[in-house]
Amino acid sequence: MKEIANSCTVVAALIVTIMFAAAITVPGGNRQESGLPMFLNVNVFVLFIISDALSLLFASISLLTFLGFTSSSYKEEDFLQSLPKKMLIGISTLFISIATMMMTFCTSLYIILKGKSSVIIPIICLAIVPVALFAWMQLRFLLGRKAKYGAITDELSSCDAYCSFPNLVSLLNHDLQVEYGSLPSKQKKID
């Protein structure tokens, strides 16, 4: 899970950077005399600004969540409660950020290429593909983790006082052996 958090941190940081730049360099540029955007009175421009701000906000939340995930103490209770919640919040906000980023892209194209629907409509349809792919892959990941580790957390929560971190590790090792076959032994003891 730590590798996923590191990868998502990079993606969220890139989205924050891009959305900040998009807010400063608006489509059409600014008027020389006032400094206000050229398309300020166009209704779609308001949608551009709102989607850009939402993407920046959710990418920032995702970035901070994944940074909190990677700097966690990795205690027993973190694996059972805190880390799965952080992963769910981070991936959800990253998905919303990607979706609103694509909305920002589509609205800027609409503003710039107004009246050229033969170009805009196919591009908007293609812009939906990365959002749908990301949602499908992450939903499979989240449902797979719940199915795989849900039984472990249920078993651990029903344990008495003898449940401990070594029991969690042994359950996870057993799960890995079932999924990937036998694990290589550390070292054989010499008699």
Automatic annotation (TrEMBL):
It comes from Quercus suber (Cork oak). Residues 1-111 form the PGG domain. GO terms for cellular component: membrane. The chain crosses the membrane at residues 7-24, 44-67, 88-113, 119-139. It comes from the Eukaryota. Keywords: Membrane, Transmembrane, Transmembrane helix. InterPro entries: PGG_dom. Pfam families: PGG. Signal peptide: none annotated. This is PGG domain-containing protein.
